[in-house]
Amino acid sequence: MDDKKLFWIFGTLQTLTLIAIIYLIFRSLNIMAGVSTIGPDTQIVLSVLFPMFLLAVEYMIYTKD
Questions:
Q1: Of all helices (H) and strands (E), which one includes residue 21?
Q2: pTM, two decimal places
Q3: Nearest residue to 56 (alpha-carbon basis) of 15, 20, 13, 9
Q4: What does each of the 65 residues of the chain score in pLDDT, given as a tens digit?
């Protein structure tokens, strides 16, 4: 298997794992506070944007010659 396929496999797994972890952290913070500190839409956006940005930066570093 070539390196690009491996990068996309493990990059996707890393991104999905980070999305789940960040989402669960925000969710648990809302549950512990007893009130909604941030809305569910903001929670999802923040959970997705950071891992996607990280994947883009890793890809740029990986493809740099």
A1: helix 3-33
A2: 0.83
A3: 15
A4: 788 899 999 999 999 999 999 999 999 988 888 887 788 898 999 999 999 999 999 999 998 86
